[in-house]
Amino acid sequence: MTMADSNYERVDVFFRGNFPSKAAAFAKKRRTFSFLLFCGYSSQRTMVYNIKWIIPKLKNPSKLWNFASTLTFAAVGIVSKLIIPDSIHRLKWGVGRLILESPVTPIVVPIYHVGMDQVLPNEPPYIIKLFKKVTIKYGEPIDFSKLLAELRASNADEVQARKAITDYIDAELLRLKKETEELHVKL
């Protein structure tokens, strides 16, 4: 993997926008940020993982696909430390964008879990609690080929297409949420 020449340059590349731009504040914590900087986007970066064996038809991956493939954690649409009963969490449109701009249409497996907040509480003390009940339910794989073909046939703009894809996944997760919560109560 090709990265920036120095640790200071890596910090400057990683901290853009509303983040602090001075690398001197982070010079002593190089090890702390090494993983984050390793995943950070740089124009000099190449792909970390060769994903062509996973998707044989993939010839030249897009920049977005290259960036997403360097992340070592799953792309998550919902990150929330607040537990609000009976609330509907909306997915971010970036999930739809990843699917829309992918060179090969990915197959998405929706996953919903209940009970992780009992294993690792959201409030202090943040101590892992053993022997708590966690229910994880996997949905049927979602193939977006038909939906993408319909969106392209209707000449939907990019924002409408991302919203349609995200809403479709959101509906599947809502259905899966109900099933998972019922299963969690039964077990």
UniProtKB/TrEMBL annotation:
Family stated for the protein in its record: Belongs to the taffazin family.
Keywords on record: Acyltransferase, Lipid metabolism, Membrane, Transferase
Tree of life domain: Eukaryota
InterPro entries in the cross-refs: Tafazzin
Protein name, per record: Tafazzin family protein
Taxonomy of the source species: Eukaryota, Metazoa, Ecdysozoa, Arthropoda, Hexapoda
Localization, UniProt: Membrane
Membrane topology: Peripheral membrane protein
GO cellular component assignments: mitochondrial membrane
GO terms classed as biological process: cardiolipin acyl-chain remodeling; inner mitochondrial membrane organization
A GO molecular function held by the record: 1-acylglycerophosphocholine O-acyltransferase activity
Organism annotation: Cotesia typhae
